[in-house]
UniProtKB/TrEMBL annotation:
Class II Histidinyl-tRNA synthetase (HisRS)-like catalytic core domain span: 91-153
One GO CC term, this protein: cytoplasm
UniProt keyword list: Aminoacyl-tRNA synthetase, ATP-binding, Ligase, Nucleotide-binding, Protein biosynthesis
Annotated family: Belongs to the class-II aminoacyl-tRNA synthetase family.
Source taxonomy: unclassified sequences, metagenomes, ecological metagenomes
EC number of the protein: 6.1.1.21
Pfam families from the UniProt entry: HGTP_anticodon, tRNA-synt_His
Record carries keyword ATP-binding: yes
GO process annotations (BP): histidyl-tRNA aminoacylation
Keyword Cytoplasm attached: no
Protein name from the UniProt record: histidine--tRNA ligase
Chemical reaction(s) catalysed: tRNA(His) + L-histidine + ATP = L-histidyl-tRNA(His) + AMP + diphosphate + H(+)
Length: 274
């Protein structure tokens, strides 16, 4: 942008944003956005050329004049070196250059990438990321470079489901040994959290319901999950340091002191858990 198109530094972000969103914009919409943002015809035409470029070589061939300093620039040399590494490792057939993958270059400081599922059943981006040299300096005096990516749970789930890669035992998760804490009011939420920490310290998985809906609704949710034990707490229990423990198998429920809670949990687990 700077050396070839002569885009002012304060307008880099506009170019990045336009390229990043170009595949989601109609051609006319993209053109209008660029023309409205830049008055110089050479910059406008240059950005249009950036939109479609299957390789570095083909991209550069679109421009008549490229200054010598560009070929010595850190970014260009880094791309060439990376391209060579892909060939040496034998994975170049799975990678392609794209000038439209931007991913917020104000955040990244080097090469950015996006990984796609190219199968006919699920043609979509799965995750993307890039290199950053300065990010960790926000948390440490030591300068450490790195690379990272963000993956959406929905996209990963769609990919795994499309190709039947999720094992059956994961699809049918067993919540029997999970303790469900039904918190009747926001006032009791600190107490519910304290009980959750206690249960987890004893190696029990724990779900805390922070919706604060009525008890019937929360018990219904616990039953749908197949939970065996529900701990019910409210302002009264918090004040008296007690817990109402409900066996979802027998529907029996009783109130116990916190010091007796672990014993009651194990009684139910030992008798009713598979």
């Amino acid at each position: 942008c700077k050396q070839i198109l002569r885009v002012p530094n304060n307008k880099f972000s506009i170019v990045y944003k336009a390229l990043d969103k170009s595949d989601k914009m109609e051609d006319s919409e993209f053109e209008k956005y660029i023309i409205d943002s830049f008055k110089e015809e050479s910059i406008v035409q240059g950005i249009f050329k950036l939109k479609e470029a299957p390789s570095i070589e083909e991209l550069l061939n679109k421009f008549e004049e490229i200054p010598d300093e560009f070929y010595k620039s850190k970014g260009y040399l880094e791309l060439l070196n990376f391209e060579n590494l892909l060939h040496e490792e034998g994975i170049s057939d799975y990678c392609s250059f794209s000038s439209r993958v931007v991913r917020g270059l104000d955040y990244y400081t080097g090469i950015v990438y996006e990984v796609f599922d190219t199968g006919k059943e699920n043609i979509r981006s799965v995750f993307g990321g890039g290199r950053y040299d300065d990010l960790l300096s926000l948390f440490s005096d030591e300068k450490i470079s790195g690379t990272g990516f963000g993956m959406g749970v929905l996209m990963l789930s769609l990919f795994l489901k499309t190709y039947n890669l999720i094992p059956e035992d994961i699809l049918e998760r067993d919540y029997t040994d999970t303790i469900y804490i039904a918190s009747i009011s926001k006032e009791a939420s600190p107490y519910a959290l304290k009980l959750a920490r206690f249960a987890r310290e004893e190696d029990f998985s724990c779900i805390v319901d922070y919706r604060f809906k009525n008890l019937k609704n929360q018990l219904k949710r616990a039953n749908e999950l197949g939970v065996l034990i529900v701990l019910i707490v409210g302002p009264k229990e918090m004040k008296e340091k007690t817990v109402s423990i409900r066996n979802m198998e027998t529907k029996e429920q009783k109130t116990v002191k916190t010091e007796s809670l672990l014993e009651e949990i194990y009684k139910i687990v030992d008798e009713y858990a598979d």
